[in-house]
Amino acid sequence: MKRVEAIIRAEKIDDVKSALAQAGYVGMTTYEVRGRGRQKGYSRFYRGREFRYDLLPKLKIELVVDDKDIEGVIEIIERKAATGDVGDGKIFVFPIEEIIRIRTGERGQAAI
Ligand SMILES: Nc1ncnc2c1ncn2[C@@H]1O[C@H](COP(=O)(O)OP(=O)(O)OP(=O)(O)O)[C@@H](O)[C@H]1O
Ligand SMILES: [Mg+2]
């Protein structure tokens, strides 16, 4: 099992969420986060002064999936979250040791 953590543009969440749900991935956790990538945010000039915005609001989605589903989930997120411009976000994948559904005590794959 793997945990997929995707940091995306907030306005892409509905598209990503509905495409994931359509493919059978319903359970997830989302967070409002602030971050920066390699452009270190952006800057704007206002009345001759430079204002830097280095931590930009983004949305983080976390979902745990079976190993066999990982490439499919990545493909959906990539396709639905992309605009082609800098700042489209990033996907991180982590191994998951165990899952327990509290209500039933089910573990592992059965608890996803
Ligand atoms: N190395 C990293 N570690 C942790 N979070 C990151 C990292 N790189 C990017 N992020 C997160 O992803 C968000 C979007 O990053 P972004 O898409 O700008 O990455 P990038 O590497 O600069 O790629 P691009 O050149 O396409 O903009 C950041 O605001 C930050 O929250
Ligand atoms: Mg960037």
Structure commentary:
With 112 residues, the protein is α+β, with helices and mostly antiparallel strands. The protein has one domain: 2-Layer Sandwich (Alpha-Beta Plaits), CATH 3.30.70. Helix content is 20%, strand content 37%. The chain is built from 2 helices and 6 strands. The protein has a 4-stranded antiparallel sheet, with helices on one face. Strands 3-4 form a two-stranded antiparallel ribbon. A hairpin with a 2-residue loop joins strand 3 and strand 4. It is elongated and about 60 Å long. Residues 7, 33, 35-39, 56, 58, 86-90 line the site of adenosine-5'-triphosphate (ATP).
Q: Give the low-confidence spans.
A: none
Overall SS class:
alpha+beta
Number of strands: 6
CATH architecture: 2-Layer Sandwich
What's a quick, concise take on this entry?
With 112 residues, this protein is α+β, with helices and mostly antiparallel strands. The protein has two helices and six strands; from the N terminus they run βαββββαβ.
Identify the notable features of this structure and list them briefly:
elongated, binds magnesium ion, binds adenosine-5'-triphosphate, 112 residues, Alpha-Beta Plaits, 2 helices, 37% strand, alpha+beta, two-stranded antiparallel ribbon, four-stranded antiparallel β-sheet
